[in-house]
Amino acid sequence: MLTNYHTHTRRCGHAVGEDREYAEAAVQAGLKILGFSDHAPQIFPDGYYSSFRMRPEELKDYVESVLSLRKEFAGTLEIPLGLELEYYPRHFPDLLTVLRAFPIDYLLLGQHFIGNEYDAPYSGCPTEDKAILSRYVDQTIEAMNTGLFTYFAHPDLIHFVGDPAEYRSQMRRLCREAKGCGIPLEMNLLGLQEGRHYPNPRFWEIAAEEGNLTVLGRDAHNPRVFADQATERRALAWLERLGLKPLDAVPLRKI
């Protein structure tokens, strides 16, 4: 891999290492592009706090740190400034207003919750409920059609364990919409390395049948992952068997 657009920082509360360590590790691994895309802050009502993302007051420091690294590593490593966020219909317009005050280069769609997070379940919880699966697909399709997301991170995070035919039907709907929007789907190397329920073989068979654009994402929460070539080889071999070739670089969509 010469590029990675899915990189977190300690600000999200579940990643380790300093920002500079990620850049140094990326250079050591031979990367040419390292996109930082930590979990974007959200401003929720009624005192609700989301614990897996940076706080709103940390956004300015995050932006300044990434821009400083961009300047420091110029000529060696390209460092675009991004954020990973969920599409929460109630709050998305207000969040965009906040984010557009900063020179954000791209957004990754990572739909960890449906609804608006505090009023709907976590996408990664096992469920047989067809309504939850359908809602996940509806909401992410709505997100993709905003035209603001550069790619869809771990699109197979939804953990549906019900009717296989329903899963195929809904995921095919998602894949076709992503293809129509020109949005690449990410094979998530963190999930592969840790043996999570994603990447999901059933999902990737559908993506191959539909001919979706594909990208590999480290989902880096530790600088050491850039040296993990074994997981990268597994992902590449998997995609090759399916007839998919990941993009070397992804065109960024400004917000």
Element layout with pairings:
Elements: E1 3-4, H1 19-28, E2 33-34, E3 36-39, H2 59-72, E4 81-85, H3 92-99, E5 106-109, H4 130-144, E6 151-152, H5 164-181, E7 185-188, H6 189-194, H7 201-210, E8 214-217, H8 229-242
Parallel strand pairs: 1-2, 3-4, 4-5, 5-6, 7-8
Describe this structure in words.
There is one protein chain. The protein has 255 residues and is α/β, with parallel strands linked by helices. Helices cover 37% and strands 11% of the residues. The chain has helices at 19-28, 59-72, 92-99, 130-144, 164-181, 189-194, 201-210, 229-242, and strands spanning 3-4, 33-34, 36-39, 81-85, 106-109, 151-152, 185-188, 214-217. A four-stranded parallel beta sheet has the order 3-4-5-6. A two-stranded parallel ribbon has the order 1-2. The chain has a two-stranded parallel ribbon with strand order 7-8. Helix 1 links the parallel strand 1 (3-4) and strand 2. Helix 4 runs parallel beside helix 5 and helix 5 (164-181) packs across helix 7. The mean pLDDT is 97.
